[in-house]
Give the backbone structure.
Amino acid sequence: MKYSNNEEQFDAIVVGSGTCGATLARELSAQNKKVLILERGGNAPLKESLMGYAKISNEIKVTDKLKDLRAFTTGGTTAMYLAVADPPPLETFQNLGINLTKDFAQVQKEIPIAEIKDGLIGKQAKRLGESARQLGYDWKKKLMMIDQSRFNQKNYYEVKWKARSYIEEALKNGAKLTNQAMVEKVIYKGNKAIGVEYTLGKKKKIYKAYGEKIILSAGSLATPIILKNSGVKNVVDHGFYINPSIGLIGSVPGLSSGENFCGCMGSKINDEIELLDANFHRFLFNVGMMVSAKPLRIPSYSKHIGITVKVNEPVGGQLTENGKYIKNLTEEDHRKLNKGLETANEILKNTGARKIFKTSLISGGALGTIKINRHIDENLQTEYNNLYVCDGSVLPDNDRVTPTLTLVCLAKYLSRHLIAS
Ligand SMILES: Cc1cc2nc3c(=O)[nH]c(=O)nc-3n(C[C@H](O)[C@H](O)[C@H](O)COP(=O)(O)OP(=O)(O)OC[C@H]3O[C@@H](n4cnc5c(N)ncnc54)[C@H](O)[C@@H]3O)c2cc1C
């Protein structure tokens, strides 16, 4: 069906080309579905450089003082993520009526997911692990979405799985990608979603695109705003979570280490406090030192060791009428952060680290803005027929994991449902 001379009709319009959008586009196009991907960001090749990051990174306020970081580009936030992969919380999803078992099994065949081999772990990470274990902490390797078979001691960035590779597959399958396309709202006919309205490029000219299924995968902070603009009621009315995080970094005299897959190890102090290896490779370390106003530390990269403290804070906060997110951290949240910092300090000092300093507090990923079985059903469909949400917004708060692997599984789950229907 055509809606005007210029407007094509698609089987599915996917809003956003990040983890979920890319997976959906790949799966649907592989089944010969006609897919349009609308992506707010550009399509420049990704590069781990200051300019490269500056072009794609975007920060959005989630508390008075904290901002959440995301990326606007083909491939979404995986363009700058660390590739740490917690297994999906299958039971939590099962309790919501969503069985991800098949999807997880499939993803494990398609994406290299493993602990980093001993020989590829940097000296800083090793020293940190030894120190933590000496003190009795259960410091274990994490899974990572990294193709270690292609690693050549330099290509830390290239060997990470990134959603962009799935977009490339979708394009080969015939999907259409439009960059610089910012979706503003959904178009309905009665109770049925039939398309989206978007602006293109700097001139912000308004366009419309029509599809049988509309899937919002714009990320956990963008999707609720599109829903709100589209008349969906009560979005974010239960709040969201941000996992506040802080780093502790010190310098170990005599240590001379190379680079590292940051986040490759860690330990849970309890259900609410997690410590993670924060031994960034050189580029991200340099960025971190600039942001922390410690540029003089940059030349002694190889002596530095770091830990991130990440805590679970209760769900809360709201999306205001004028589209701003607000959340307050409580004294209890700060108490948990301080407890994590005490442990991190103990572990760092035991490595021999000196001149230890705290980085700024950051949002460790704002998620859970949309609730399954409240705003969307177990097929991820909203109160409007044919309008779906699939991205970090729908992640439940009771079993928090690093999101990417779970999101790839969830997008595969939705694709299966859409193809079957
Ligand atoms: C520094 C950093 C490190 C991280 N490390 C890890 C890690 O180690 N492990 C892990 O699992 N997770 C990690 N994450 C988080 C992870 O990358 C994200 O949670 C995940 O990619 C979210 O996927 P998504 O599909 O919800 O959204 P995104 O991947 O953010 O994709 C959303 C896409 O939608 C586009 N978009 C937004 N608004 C619109 C609009 N109105 N119209 C059209 N397009 C739009 C955006 O440009 C973007 O491309 C990290 C995040 C950061 C910032």
User: Anything to note?
Assistant: The chain has ten helices and 19 strands. Residues 1-5 have pLDDT under 50 and may be disordered. The chain has two domains: 8-111+161-235+366-420, 116-158+241-358. The longest helix spans residues 331-350.
